[in-house]
Each structure stands twice: as C-alpha cells, then as structure tokens.
Amino acid sequence: MNKGKPAGRRRRAVWRGLFLLAAAWLAAGCAGGQADDPAAHGAGKLGVVTSFYPLYDFASKIGGEHAEVVNLVPAGVDSHDWSPRLQDMRRIAEADLFLYLGAGYEGWVDDFLGALEPGNGPAAVEASRGADLIRLSGNGTPLAAGGEHSRGHGPDAEHDADHGGESGYAGHEDGHAQEHGHDHGHQHGHSSLVTDPHVWLSPKQALVLADNIRRAFVEADPGHREDYERNHAELAGRLLELDARARQVAERAARKTFIVSHASFGYLARDYGLTQIAVMGLAPDAEPTAGWLREVREEAERLGIRYLLTEELVSPKVAQVLAESLGIGTLVLNPLEGLTEEQLAAGEDYFSVMERNLTTLAVALE
User: Fold this and answer.
1) In the CATH hierarchy, which fold is given to the domain comprising 39-129+199-241?
2) Which residue ranges make up each domain of the chain?
3) Residue-wise pLDDT tens digits, 43-92
4) Given a cut of 60, is residue 26 above it in pLDDT?
C-alpha cells in the first residue's frame, strides 16, 4: 500500500476548498483593481503567469517587450513541494494568459481552473499538449517509452515475484510493457501520475512547449504576431542547437547508461538513445530500498559507471551517502524546475543550464 495516498487526498481536498473560497472572493470583486499587484501588466502589455521556471523563461523570450511575465514559484524553491497561495490564485485570475505544463505536473491546476466561473479568468494553456509523453503504469513503470530509457525503484515498490525480483521495460506502440534485455527494478514515483512530466529536459520536447507558447501569444495578442513569431524562431533555433549537442553527446558516449538520484531525465534518455537508472524514482524525496541499491551498485560495476548524477536542490550529504553506498562519485545535473537567486542574478537561463547539463552528462558517459 502507498502510504502517501491519504496525504495526497487530504492535500487535494484542501486545494479544492481553498480554490472555491478564492473563486468566491474573486467573484465578489475583491480582485477588482490590479494596481497593487506586482503581476499587474502595464498598458498595452500582455499579462502572463507561468507555473514554473522553464515556461517562464520561454514565455519571457517569446513575449519580449510586449509581455509582462510572472513566475509563480519563487527562486530556489523545489516546484514539487510548492502549492499556490491566495495571492498566487489572484495573479492567475487577473492575467491575460496562464501557462502551465500539464502532464500531471501541477496537481492543483485542474481544481483551480474548475473553480473559476465560465468566461472569467485567463486563457489557460497546457504547454505540454502534443508532446510525446512517456506513459506510466499504476506503479510508475514507463509504458510507451520508445525504448529502454528509464529504470528505477521507489520506496513503495515490491519486486515482481514472477521475475525473480527484477523487471525491465521497453516501450512499444501498443503501450504495453514487455520484459527487455537486462532486467532491473520498477521505476516508482508519484503514484497518481499517469505520465512522466519532465518533458522540458529533452530539447526535442522543449520545442513542442515553445511552439505551444508561441501559439498562445499569437492568439491572445495577434497585433504583435510578427514579433512573437520572430522571437520564437530565435528560441527554436537555440533549442535545435541543444538538440544537436545532445545527439553528439549520445553518439560519442563510451557507455549509454547513466545513474541519477531522481528520475527526471527519462525524456533526455529516451529521445537520444540512452538509459537512465534512477535510484529514487520520480519522487525526489523517495527512499530507495537496500535491495535496489544493491542492484544499482552491481549494474554500476558491470558497466563501469563512475558517477551518480544528483540534483542541486538535493542535500549534498544525502547525495554523498547514496554515492558512497554505490561506490561511485557524484556530479550535478540540474532538473531545471527552478533557478536560485544567485543563478538568476548571474544571468543563467534554461540554455546555459542545459548546456552545462550536457557537458556533465558527457563526462558521466565517458
């Protein structure tokens, strides 16, 4: 049994109640003026609110001087752990355009949008629509993965007794999981997810996000279509450069498998012919079992893998303990769910972080 489910249901109930209260508050006219709201857009500018950093970065670049873009999640905050406050709901309700990822990433969005009166609120756009999503089974195992791209094990997982405690999965067009090659444990994470939401970490899928944002801007503000199209073309060109770089890293890699602490990089693995082994599955705070750590260590030794790729927002002590248990070193991959204040002040963005990620990945695959 997944012990997190009751807490998840309680959280969703709290969200629904809060959203209904917020909707009533907004409908009563308490949100009538925008002058005191930092998200209020200037004259002639499109007011845009985004649900997390990659969408903010793309929207800012595409909107340019014609849009005022506000990101909901504060700098340095893990978006997995974030949920909206009343002022955040007000920002969304008063915007012209609300961009959210979808694919199950923001568990609160459907309840919020459902609480708004029809015809009120912003144009809401699901940025991942049309992306080639990795579907998950009930226990978090990839189904339509397009290849043996991701393996992992979560805290609530039990090995399949019919397979001697090991299971490997490869995606097929019919969406059914099959045993494939060298067997490894199930990937588990958020039990309620039906898709892996981390699409932005593959340049191929990020192109889809950018195009959906372009369409949203053009539809919301057709008078500046040419500027939006031009800005998007520049952004798409940079994403294509990242795509070429990712293909180069994969093609030159001495080994095709990498080990990550959190299963964020399934799309990057799938789209470029690599395999990620995830120690902690989709949930960044999940704890691996001793049995799974043993399997990962055996695989690392078999393949000569030298590094555990961990995240910036994960405690260095936790990362070091995991790496020591596996007998390997650590390198940092940034899942780009949000940048720190220091990174923003230094002018970092999606592209500088992804370029550094690919450089790090190239070292890990040597």
Assistant:
1) Rossmann fold (3.40.50)
2) 39-129+199-241, 134-198+254-364
3) 689 999 999 999 999 999 999 999 999 999 888 776 666 778 888 888 99
4) no
Taking domain 134-198+254-364, whether its CATH number is 3.40.50.1980 is answered by yes
- The edge-to-edge listing of strands for the beta sheet with 67-71 is 67-71, 46-50, 97-100, 123-126
Comparing CA positions, the residue from 352, 73, 83, 96 lying closest to residue 221 is: 96
- Give the pLDDT confidence of 76-135 residue by residue, as tens digits: 776 666 778 888 888 999 999 999 999 999 988 888 888 887 777 899 999 999 999 999
% of the chain surpassing 90 pLDDT = 51
